[in-house]
Specification:
The chain is of the alpha+beta class. The protein contains 5 helices and 5 strands, in the order H-E-E-E-H-H-E-E-H-H.
Amino acid sequence: MKIDAIANLAQESARVCLQQKEKESADITTFWPFMLIEGNCTALVLFAPDFEAKAPIFKERAKEGWVGNGRDWNSVAQAIVKEQFHQLAGEFRFDSDAGHFATYGTKVNLTVLGYALKIAFDDDHILRDILFRAKLQD
């Protein structure tokens, strides 16, 4: 699957999800291991225990400083937004640290990003491709 296909798949999946008008306060299945949480604010999160599944991919780039923590996933998400959803670049607020990845925004925008991140998480080739262009966060 080409990286350019992420945008099309994510946008189509987001349209289907939003048409179902789900009212749950937390979606822990659609984007697994990413979770969409709705409450006082709407966030897409990934927690440290789930980093381990992709640790070997990040370790391949350890000499460059990648470790696979929340800040690294933050870099992956920002690269996806920049490359695939540039029109949404100002629509997310990223607040990640070593122990978790988190971004805030509207449910619509987070749904699109959630599908794109899930695609990258599930496909090692896509994740590796993104890492080559992502900017490592401090």
